[in-house]
Amino acid sequence: PAIIRRQDYRPPDWLVPEIDLDFALDPARTQIRAVLSVARNGAHDRYLKLDGDGLVPLEVKVDGRPLESGEWTLDGGALIIPLTGDAHQIETLVELAPENNSKLMGLYASGGLLCTQCEAEGFRRITFFPDRPDVLSRYSVRMEADPARFPVLLANGDPIEQGSSADGRHWARWTDPFPKPCYLFALVAGDLACNADSFVTMSGREVKLGIWVKEADLPRTGHAMEALKNSMAWDERVYGREYDLDVFNIVAVADFNFGAMENKGLNIFNSRYILADPETATDIDYDGVEGVVAHEYFHNWSGNRVTCRDWFQLSLKEGFTVFRDQNFSADMGSHAVKRIEDVRVLRAAQFQEDAGPLAHPVRPESYIEISNFYTATIYNKGAELIRMMALMLGPERFRAGSDLYFKRHDGQAATCEDFVRAMEEGGGIDLGQFRRWYEQAGTPHVRATLRHDEATQTVELLLEQSMPPTPGQPDKQPMAIPLRTALFDRIGSAHKGEELLMLTQPQQSFTFGGFAEAPVLSINRGFSAPVIVATDRSQGDLAFLSAHDDDPFARYEAMQQLMVNVLVGRIAGQNVDEAAVVAAIRDTVVDPHLDPAFIAEAIRLPSEAYLGDQMAKVDPDAIHIARDALQRRIGQELEPLWRDIHARTKANSFSLSSAAKGARKLRNTALICLVASGVPDGAAVAFSQFDEADNMTERQAALATLANGASDEREAALDIFYNRYRNDALTLDKWFQTQAFALHPDTVDLVEELGRHPDFTLSNPNRVRSLYGAFGGNQWAFHHRSGKGYRLVANCIIALDKLNPQTAARLVPPLGRWCRFDDERAALMRGELQRILAEPGLSKDVTEQVGKSLE
Ligand code: DPP
Ligand code: ZN
């Protein structure tokens, strides 16, 4: 397949200032008439090329004149038309069968609805068009459909008129006054109910808000609506950004490749990020709804008003928008806990990506299939880059930079470089070296060594940085790394003030005076840079910080590092002091000044995958055994504490307050510890939590705890859960996911069975992710030494690729991590990758991911 390169970018040959679309909608046979006004862009004699994917032109007209079949050609799906003038009107007619569209790209059917997904390149599956984000057009859209099956007709922008046609069908016209790239086009037709509300913007305009779902789901839309209104107010307050249309609609659909899509004025969501009620949604789900609603709303400015010049700039909108939604969620809840959660995601997804064969820069240089680049690097690392700039600038200058960015590029298709330049000029900073963060893939490593000199009462902090090679980038230049740092006095348990150290050289040292005794180093506080820091701090130092650090992230990090050292040491056969971990956990749990949600985060053992990341070669079995044993010991030694917490965090009634959420989080953690201790009534306690809970957070946590064990209660709870939720797809996903995640010796066999379960289907991406996606993240089970786990996932990829290549390709990365494992496992993993690659008719999505994974 062809490789697309960033350096080959050329402005479009033809622009399309206006497009008029007419959809005669029907699941089996939809006709689409498109009228494009096209304008030659600059002086050239190149023909007009309109991208198409699987389309057959039934009619082609130029300026109203029908073309003979020899007057146009198809080239790899694209429609080629030679034109003589500088401006013409092009009309095409195509026909589609949305109900047969299993890729869920373009126009497709989901649960009786017709809907669209165009990002990145789905619009070319709807009509012939220059499908690239730097072609911006004004859209007018007419939809016509059977009013019984499709009473609601929605598109981008504002509704203009509607009516009935003579043949009993009905129609509606929507126009969007803001020029947009075609990836932001959307329409929805279906039998939908609306949660209607409104928002008055900062300039006093009233915006009509609608969340459209199946009638039965209406009671589950309240949280999403609250999140939307809070997002609108937050973007006005924090960024000065006001909504710009008179209506804002959101539609929830069951079958969706992404989490959601920011189409102008008509966001389309995976229903899992809209629907929530206490019976079916966990607190994590509630937070997911809030965060994704905010994310898509924020795209209205960072993505839509200012869009991307080309797909290499994807992080321009995604990194910035993730940064915005992270800060919004932090403001809605706890900054400390949100930061810990975000860093955990970054380390689990992005650091692994950076360390493997699919590593790529935040601004990639090339791709085969752009769908493969909706990655943790583009999104989460991209957000960290914005966060570092915001840190270096401070809030006022960062705001000045973002104001300049929006002002300068409103209505344009911009680049990452445009953003950086706006930050430099608006904020007043030189980001010359910082630009390498966009160019170099891989996670920087920083080694920090503290040397104390008693005679001069000074300390020298030596910082060294390095960056491992990544595909296509054997040698790296030093990065500009902002490290928030403090030095703690052991006696007073305080520091003299934090400093922001800029590490810009391969090696650099910083000297601090006034230390009669060697202080304790607190570094990369708040996770100020997305790097891996190694220090020479003792377990005693870490225990000290886990009790005294006033930066919550650094405190959490010290605790985690304390645990990592013990576990990795134990796996290596060293003599380790587990008692120190138990003591630190006890001290944290009983600290009355700490937020229960923070406590729950801090005392959680590092995941098996994170422990694997700390080892030269991952040994999944040894990691599981060591972690399990430490969890048991923590459970046993502090058993009365866990019983006490579990009892006293039981709430009388459900609430979504931070206090109630924190209590549930701590209660679930206490349950894990208690059950891990092996006490005879552990499973009974878990089962009664499962049985008595009035919310999904506690019910699902109890189920997950039981699923790790082998009790009778395990089977009972799984049966009850299944029977209770078998008709609720989103909740049934949790039943699959909990079993696929289970730290249980038979998980691999169970996943195989579940793949044949009558409720399992490859046609719903959420269901696929809840089984095979979750399983790929279960290190111990997936890496079963038989290789069975690899085979299961490979089988799924091969089967799914025929239906939905985009979702199939997302299952590849766990198989691509073979070089991190022993030779036997590596050979088995490579064998499966080769088996996939040998499959005839493989999509370019999967071909790219598997091909790179084998290199
Ligand atoms: N819909 C995806 C997102 O919002 C891609 N833009 O991130
Ligand atoms: Zn996004």
From TrEMBL:
A Pfam family recorded for this sequence: DUF3458
Task: Give start and end of each Peptidase M1 membrane alanine aminopeptidase domain.
Answer: 224-435
EC number, as in UniProt: 3.4.11.2
Q: Which domain of life is it from?
A: Bacteria
Cofactor(s) required, per the database record: Zn(2+)
Boundaries of each Peptidase M1 alanyl aminopeptidase C-terminal domain copy?
Answer: 541-855
Q: Which UniProt keywords apply?
A: Aminopeptidase, Hydrolase, Metal-binding, Metalloprotease, Protease, Zinc
The reaction(s) annotated as catalysed by this protein in its Swiss-Prot or TrEMBL entry are:
Release of an N-terminal amino acid, Xaa-|-Yaa- from a peptide, amide or arylamide. Xaa is preferably Ala, but may be most amino acids including Pro (slow action). When a terminal hydrophobic residue is followed by a prolyl residue, the two may be released as an intact Xaa-Pro dipeptide
GO MF terms on file?
alanyl aminopeptidase activity
Q: Which residues form the Peptidase M1 alanyl aminopeptidase Ig-like fold domain?
A: 442-535
Per its UniProt record, what InterPro entries does this chain match?
Answer: Aminopeptidase_N-like_N, Aminopeptidase_N-like_N_sf, PepN_Ig-like_sf, Peptidase_M1, Peptidase_M1_dom, Peptidase_M1_pepN, Peptidase_M1_pepN_C, Peptidase_M1_pepN_C_sf
All copies of the Aminopeptidase N-like N-terminal domain together span: 101-184
UniProt key word Metal-binding = yes
Gene3D superfamilies, sorted: 2.60.40.1840, 3.30.2010.30, Neutral Protease Domain 2, Peptidase M1, alanyl aminopeptidase, C-terminal domain, tricorn interacting facor f3 domain
For this chain, the family text in UniProt reads:
Belongs to the peptidase M1 family.
Name listed for the protein in its UniProt record: Aminopeptidase N
- Species of provenance: Sphingobium tyrosinilyticum
